[in-house]
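Q: Predict the assembly, please.
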Amino acid sequence: AKPRVGYTFRNGAVENEIRKILNRYRVRDVKSVPVVVKETCSIYDAIVALFTEDTGSIYVVDEDNFLTGVVSRKDFLKATLGQMDINKIPISVIMTRMPNIITTTLDETVVEAVRKIVEHEVDSLPVVKCFIDENNEEKLQVVGKISKTTIARLFLDLAMKRFEGV
Amino acid sequence: AKPRVGYTFRNGAVENEIRKILNRYRVRDVKSVPVVVKETCSIYDAIVALFTEDTGSIYVVDEDNFLTGVVSRKDFLKATLGQMDINKIPISVIMTRMPNIITTTLDETVVEAVRKIVEHEVDSLPVVKCFIDENNEEKLQVVGKISKTTIARLFLDLAMKRFEGV
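A: Predicted assembly structure:
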């Protein structure tokens, strides 16, 4: 959606200030708590979690609690449309796996995270901390979530001045 | 998600400018094109539209093209989980109806629209024009859509200065 009208600022300095301020926010400042399930969780149980926690996407971890997958409402919808027995099939069958998971980190700017969300057309990003294990493999610990809802709330906070510390 | 750190502006004037500028945007400036189906459309066909158009919610209209319902991915997921024959049952059975549809108008501010999205916990708002028919009933024509994706894009435009007319 390219803007069309009313976007002209009389003052370039003000506009620069806005960019500066928006770019000041880090993922750690706005992240929310993700819903996380194990790979062995059934598709059905994961959908129940989706509804009870009222979330848009679910993150999947292995037995050591490292991130292995992401499942969106769309993935669930595809699964329920098919002939699968969702009570028996584990969520790992339908999840998006590494290296196809788009992630962010605590220190990344919110702007960069939003750019990833918009460009990759995903609903949310897992916020991860990266570790290297004894086999020299990268392991990701999930420490939060950034979603479009996070962005909407931040936009509202900025516009309504509901945030603290001002 | 309440912000915690880094939200302190040194300059109250700049912060006022941000609020002024964010509040300048109208729904008409950023709205996108909605996916609209008739009440008689089957749940299955509506889900196909959801995937082919890659959208999060679908708006439903009557034979005169006036808005009668809204269906989210969550509503579809509920329907596919149940025992319904989604090939036969029309979408009107599962849609949210007036007066429970939260709407916005072309002249409303984007901030007010985002407030509605956040407070009512919906993914999108139909942008409507209101008419009064011969029976003195209010009829709503769908002229657009505002979603969390719209807000993420606007946030990015503001932060990256990708918008025109500057």
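The longest helix of chain B spans residues 148-160. Chain B has six helices and six strands.
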